[in-house]
Every structure is written in structure tokens, then in C-alpha cells.
Specification:
By secondary structure, the chain is of the alpha+beta class. It folds into three domains: 7-298, Beta-galactosidase, Chain A, domain 5, CATH 2.70.98.60; 343-525, Aldolase class I (TIM Barrel, Alpha-Beta Barrel); 622-720, Immunoglobulin-like (Sandwich). Helices cover 21% and strands 31% of the residues. The chain contains 13 helices and 37 strands. The strands form six sheets. Strands 7, 8, 9, 10, 12, 13, 15, 16, 20 and 21 form a ten-stranded antiparallel sheet that branches. Strands 22-23-24-27-28-29-30-31 form an eight-stranded parallel β-barrel, surrounded by five helices. The longest helix has 23 residues, at 595-617. The radius of gyration is 26 Å and the shape is globular. The relative contact order is 0.09. It binds (2R,3S,4R,5S)-2-(hydroxymethyl)piperidine-3,4,5-triol. (2R,3S,4R,5S)-2-(hydroxymethyl)piperidine-3,4,5-triol binds next to loops.
Length: 721
């Protein structure tokens, strides 16, 4: 079936209007089409990206004088706009002029081959159409066929262009403990750049994902929207050039600043992928396409529901020991949790990890804290019917560590400069471009699992940027390869780990959500959304993050009140209701809960187990944004067959005469009747308990579900009858 589909998608057509011998390629997903023309001797042109069309409609595209833009503009010859590629050839010539030499389709892949008109310099453009979601991945393979080395100055992954007046962009940015803040603004003439220069943590500030809304101000569940995500673990740049209000061109790839890359004769360079989708169902449609792609293709173990865990960090920070861990294990077991994770603080011999100034790299148990080591912790968890996980920060060391004493040449450094140190005044980044360091990082995980075969989970943290730009492994003429080779080394190490340990659950963390990027997701099961566990701020952080990432991957923990980051006091129900919209966990000492709270937490964990498949595997519909809801916010999750759903609404501000909005649902079957049940309502009565409504009514007319106090919330479960 797939074969017929792809053969049909590749169809030469002859046109008399403005196009002679146009050969058109259709990259089709179930609901979308990207149409390019690929005439030999000229450049590939993008003509259409939108709802799926048939080949007979190609003429309409040309007749409508739609877009006609170079799919991979190169510097120096024909393009005075932003370029995707810039090369210094072996003879010093800085111009490149690409022309198509052929194109083919193999299964889901479309490959367009280009060659410079004067040089043996080759570029292949790849487009992969996912048949189970509406995401297209595009990337580029660049090959040096010249006789001497060439230098890639700019090497983007992909390009998308559109013509639309009044388009808006949605993008995400932030900082530690305030990640993924959303900004929505009209695209105005000029260049909008979204960039990351951290070197190590690709999402520490800006995020590499954007949405472009074609019908004005972005709407959640209506309007045409294009979504784009650069899948890369390192520095990146997304450029959005707007010309004359109408034409918007997105060029995305590895950031070219300080990353010129030399290719020897015969060598090739494969860029990371740019993932694209198009939806007529607003931003929510784009999100659901990315979530589905995550489940089916990109996220490690994307169909496996995640465990409910207790992480030790906010409970005891680095003061871990056997006794306190066992108390926490007892606590989470009593509440119904399934996994205990010991966070930072468990390791270090000569340099004990008693604070953040030392010990990273010395991955042996601190026997003063844990006399019988990790095996005893694991056994204690097992005795309680819990799985066990452990924290590491493998790409890092401290200047106060046995590792650094033994291998000072393994850290990123410049020989003529003093080291710039990070966290604790001593933290340093290991040189992942060095194969010996890659082997060492692999061995950290390998040794942990070999020593503890039942180890279930690892939290892989990363808390520093690339402060010292220099590698003693790379030769002096290749120092500009550092960021790229660091991340290639990291990725190949992660690949090795995954090849050997496919079932190990691994959480991605970087001082919170500093690495949330699709480039990491094939190796990780989930990520820590933020070090900010304040439920009110989490509404915003999680809202932003969910635009591109599936809930099953979003680690959301209930923590203590007052909250450790903000000091805010929030009732336990609200904290649970906010955390339940992702992978639920806890991050506190359960023994700090009073009896009433403990009973509540037990019910909440049991309830989450019931709704977990709907939350983690269902479709997410964001409804009322916290950015616009005047102190209110809501979202819901619906199973693919629309037989079950869970609706959440929150009130996080309060003043006199603040009226609760009418709640309109989405994603339900309009013709079905649903019975509603409420989970532990914070209002006085379970008003909707047992009542039935049609899907149409719930979506069109909606419910007046009152929320009276600040931090009140409702969770309503819907079942089709
Ligand atoms: C930063 C992480 O985000 C926290 O959750 C915790 O693991 C600390 N690092 C430990 O140092």
C-alpha cells in the first residue's frame, strides 16, 4: 500500500502556463501535501504546503501563482535573501550554484540530488513523509567531491516558505525555572531570529520550535497553522525572513556562529532534521500531530505508559542516606507509587557529594551515606514492590574530583586561558568530541546497570553551558567543529547506550527543561519539565511545553507547600490536578503530609492510574489559555476512539466579581452521549456527578462549572454511554 502511495506521489506533469516541463514531487502525509518542482538543471522550488491535494490539482497551484521559492537557497549567485547554505570551495571561491541532477522516491523518502554547476560539490535534500502522522522530516546531506578540503560556513537543515498577509508566530523562550514561556506576535517585515548559543543545553533560553498561524491571531482549535521543530541537541538558529508583509521564509539549522565545518575530499555532512506539520485545526492540531509523531516515531518507547514515581530531590536534596531513602520509599509505596528515584548526593569518595562544589565524575557510592551502596537501595525498593532509579550527570565533572585529577585533559578548556567554572564554582564540561570521553560516559551507565541489573530508571542531568570553548582532542584547525562534534559524540554515546539498554527508562534533565528538544527524544523516555514545581507557574510552563511535546514525556511532580522556589501556598488538590496532566510524580517527603493529605494523595494516585492511559496516550486539547484566561485555564484529553475523556479546569487568581467562564470542551464525538463523574471536587458539591450530555452540547454550549476560590480546580471524567 505504502509503495503504491509513494509511486503515485511522484508524477511528471507538463504545463503550458508559466511552467514548461515542470516535474512535480508530492510529499504526502495522510492529511498534508508539500509540493515541489524538480526540473533537472534548475533549483528545486517549493510551490505548496497545505492540506492534502491530488496531482490533478497541481495546475491549480501554478494558476493561482502560489509561492515559487528555492527549496535550499545557496549563497553567492542567485539569492540575495537569507541563504541555507554557504561554502568556501577548495580554491577559495565562496559562491555556490546548485542545480538538480536527479530526484527519486524510495518508500516514504523523497531525495532530490543537486550539484554545483562548476564544482564537484553535492547536496541531497531529503524529505520523509510519515504515514502515521502528518509530520514531514527534512534534512540535507552535503558531500565534498573536490580535490581539497572545503569549508561549510552555513548548512541549514531545511527551508519552508509561505505567502500570507497577517501571519503570526508563536514561539517559546525562558530561563531556569521559567522555561517555555509563550510569545505570540504578528510577523512583520525583517528578520526574526530564534537562537541558542549555550553549547550544551539546547533549550536553556529560546526553544527550537515555532508555529506560524496563517489566519491571524493564533487559535487553539481552528485556523491554518504550520509547526516547525529543529531536532538537534546543540546550538541552533531559526531564521524567519518576512519580505513585503506577504512572503515568510523559515530557514532552520545548526547555528553557523563559530561552527564552520571542514569537509575533507570524499567526506559528507548530514544535518539534523527539521520536522514540519500543517493543520487546519489551529495550534492544537499542530500539537496533536507532533504528539502522535512522538508516540509513533520519535520518542523512546512512545507507546509505553510511564510509572508514578517519587524523586528524592526536593524532599532531602543532597542529604540522602539509606534510612531517609527507605522512609521515602515507605511513603510512596503507601500512596500507591511505583518507582523511587534517588537524586543527586549519593556518590563521591575522596570528594564526597555533600554540596554542589565537588564529586561529579566520581560515580562510586558515598559509603558514609550509603554503607551498603546502590545494591542495598535497590533491594530496599524491591522489598517494597517498587522499581528503582538513580541520578547522574555524566557529561560533567568538578575541578574537585578524582576524575579531573586523573584526566585534566578531558574537560573543555583553552590552553592559554584560565578555566571558567560553573555550578558550585567548580563545575566543568567534559569534551564529548573525544572518543575516550565518549567511552567513559558510556561506561558510567554500563557499570551502573552491570552492578545493578534491576536498575529501572536513570535521570540524566546537565547543569552547565560550554563556557570554555576549546578542545585538546580536536586539532587546532578543527576547533570550530567543537559544538557539532560534542553533540555528535553525545548522540553516538546515547545510541550505544540505547542499543545495549533499550528498556532502561531514562529521563532527560538539564537544570529542569534546558534540553527539551526533539533531537534528544529518540534516546529518552521523558524529560523534567522545570525545576520550578510551583503549581501556578507550572500551568504556564506546561502549557508552553505541550505545544510540541507529548504529555507522557512531561515529568510533573507534586511538591511541598509552601513551594521551595516561590514560597507560594497551594492546596494539595490543585497541586495534584496540575501535575496529573503529564507523567505524574512526587518530589517531597511523603512523611511531611498530614493524615488528611495522605488520604487525599492516595485517592489522587489511584485516580491517576485509572485516567493514565487517556492522559498519556490520548489526544490533548488545550482549551482556555492561562495567558488569556483572566486567572482561569483549562484543557482536556480524549482517547483516539473518543469513548473517554478527562477535563481539567483551574482558577489561579481571585478577586471580587471575577466570573468563572463557561467551559467549552473539544475533541468529543458530537453525536455521542457522555456520562460525567467528578474527581474530589474542591467546590462544595459534585454538581455534574452522574449527569449526561451530548458531545455536541459540551463543545458548543459548554458547562457552567463554577470555581469560586483561588486555587480551586475541577477534574471531570467523561465516558461515552
Ligand atoms: C538540577 C535538576 O533539575 C534537579 O531536579 C536536581 O536533579 C538537581 N539538578 C541536582 O543537582
Amino acid at each position: 500500500m505504502k509503495k503504491i502511495f509513494s509511486l503515485l506521489a511522484f508524477c511528471p506533469l507538463l504545463f503550458s502556463v508559466g511552467k514548461l516541463s515542470a516535474k512535480d514531487v508530492f510529499v504526502n502525509t495522510p492529511k498534508t501535501t508539500l509540493m515541489l518542482s524538480v526540473n533537472e538543471g534548475s533549483t528545486p522550488r517549493i510551490h505548496y504546503y497545505g492540506s492534502r491535494i491530488s496531482h490533478s490539482q497541481a495546475q491549480e497551484i501554478y494558476d493561482a501563482m502560489s509561492i515559487n521559492y528555492d527549496a535550499y537557497p545557496a549563497f553567492g549567485r542567485t539569492s540575495f535573501d537569507e541563504t541555507a547554505l554557504s561554502v568556501t570551495h577548495a580554491d577559495g571561491n565562496m559562491s555556490t550554484e546548485l542545480a538538480i541532477t536527479g530526484s527519486r522516491q524510495e518508500g516514504d523518502l523523497t531525495i532530490i540530488s543537486l550539484k554545483d554547476k562548476a564544482y564537484k560539490f553535492f547536496v541531497d535534500l531529503y524529505y520523509k513523509a510519515n504515514s502515521e502522522s502528518d509530520v514531514i522530516e527534512t534534512w540535507t546531506v552535503i558531500r565534498n567531491g573536490e580535490k581539497k578540503p572545503i569549508r561549510l560556513e552555513q548548512y541549514a537543515s531545511g527551508v519552508m516558505t509561505l505567502r500570507q498577509e497577517g501571519a503570526w508566530i508563536t514561539h517559546f523562550h525562558g530561563t531556569w525555572a521559567a522555561e517555555s514561556q509563550m510569545t505570540e506576535e504578528p510577523l512583520t517585515p525583517g528578520l526574526k531570529t530564534i537562537v541558542n548559543h549555550d553549547g550544551v543545553r539546547t533549550a536553556m533560553d529560546d526553544r527550537a520550535e515555532v508555529m506560524i498561524s496563517l489566519d491571524g491571531k493564533p487559535q487553539e482549535n481552528s485556523g491554518r497553522v504550520i509547526g516547525a521543530a529543529l531536532c538537534w541537541t546543540g546550538n541552533y538558529k531559526l531564521r524567519l525572513e518576512t519580505r513585503g508583509k506577504y512572503r515568510h521564509t523559515l530557514i532552520a539549522g545548526i547555528d553557523e556562529l563559530h561552527t564552520a565545518y571542514t569537509l575533507r575530499p570524499g567526506e559528507s555532512f548530514q544535518t539534523p532534521e527539521l520536522a514540519l506539520t500543517y493543520s487546519t485545526e489551529g495550534k492544537g492540531g499542530v500539537s496533536r500531530a507532533f504528539h502522535r509523531w512522538g508516540h509513533n516515531v520519535k520518542l523512546h518507547n512512545g507507546h509505553q505508559v510511564r510509572d508514578i514515581l517519587l524523586n528524592s530531590w526536593e524532599g532531602v536534596y543532597m542529604n540522602v542516606n539509606q534510612e531517609v531513602c527507605e522512609q521515602m520509599m515507605d511513603g510512596i509505596r503507601e500512596l500507591g507509587g511505583e518507582l523511587f528515584v534517588v537524586d543527586d548526593g549519593w556518590f563521591g569518595r575522596k570528594y564526597r557529594r555533600t554540596d554542589d562544589t565537588q564529586g561529579l565524575g566520581d560515580w562510586m557510592t558515598d559509603t558514609q551515606k550509603l554503607p551498603d551502596g546502590v545494591p542495598a537501595l535497590l533491594k530496599a525498593a524491591e522489598d517494597r514492590g517498587l522499581k528503582f532509579g538513580i541520578w547522574i550527570e555524566p557529561e560533567m565533572t568538578n575541578s574537585k574530583s578524582e576524575l579531573y585529577e586523573a584526566h585534566p585533559d578531558w574537560v573543555l578548556a583553552h590552553p592559554t586561558r584560565e578555566l571558567s567554572k560553573g555550578r558550585g564554582g567548580t563545575q566543568l564540561v567534559l569534551d564529548m568530541s573525544n572518543p575516550k570521553v565518549q567511552d567513559y560516559v558510556f561506561s558510567i551507565v554500563d557499570n551502573l546497570v552491570k552492578g545493578n541489573p534491576k536498575l529501572h530508571y536513570i535521570k540524566w542531568d546537565c547543569n552547565m553551558s560550554m563556557n570554555n570553548y576549546g578542545s585538546s582532542y580536536l586539532t587546532s584547525d578543527r576547533q570550530s567543529h567543537l559544538v557539532v562534534d560534542f553533540h555528535r559524540g553525545l548522540r553516538s554515546t546515547l545510541e550505544r547506550i540505547r542499543a545495549k539498554y533499550p528498556d532502561l527508562v531514562i529521563q532527560l534533565c538539564a537544570g529542569g527543561g534546558g534540553r527539551v528538544n526533539w533531537g534528544f527524544m529518540p534516546y529518552f523516555d521523558e524529560f523534567w519539565v522545570s525545576d520550578d514545581t510551583d503549581a501556578q507557574q507550572r500551568l504556564f510552563i506546561q502549557w508552553g511545553t505541550s505545544h510540541f511535546f507529548p504529555t507522557m514525556a512531561m515529568a510533573q511532580h507534586v511538591s511541598a507547600s509552601p513551594n521551595h522556589q516561590t514560597g507560594r501556598i497551594i492546596p494539595l488538590k490543585f497541586r495534584f490536578d496540575v501535575a496529573m496532566t503529564g507523567r505524574l510524580g512526587m518530589e517531597m517527603k511523603p512523611s511531611d503530609l498530614n493524615d488528611r493529605e495522605r488520604e487525599y494523595a492516595k485517592k489522587a494516585v489511584a485516580f491517576y492510574k485509572e485516567i493514565r492511559p487517556v492522559i498519556q496516550l490520548g489526544d490533548q486539547y488545550r482549551l482556555l489559555s492561562p495567558y488569556e484566561g483572566n486567572g482561569f485555564c483549562s484543557q482536556m484529553f480524549v482517547t483516539e476512539d473518543k469513548s473517554e475523556a478527562v477535563f481539567f479546569c483551574y482558577k489561579f487568581e481571585h478577586y471580587v466579581d471575577l466570573h468563572t467562564p463557561r467551559w467549552h470542551m473539544a475533541g468529543l464525538d458530537p453525536d455521542a452521549t457522555y456520562r460525567l463523574t467528578e474527581f474530589e471536587c474542591s467546590e462544595h458539591e459534585h454538581y455534574f456527578e452522574g449527569k449526561t450530555f451530548s458531545g455536541k452540547f459540551l463543545m458548543e454550549t459548554g458547562l457552567d462549572a463554577n470555581l469560586s476560590r483561588q486555587f480551586s480546580s475541577r477534574v471531570i471524567r467523561l465516558k461515552k454511554i
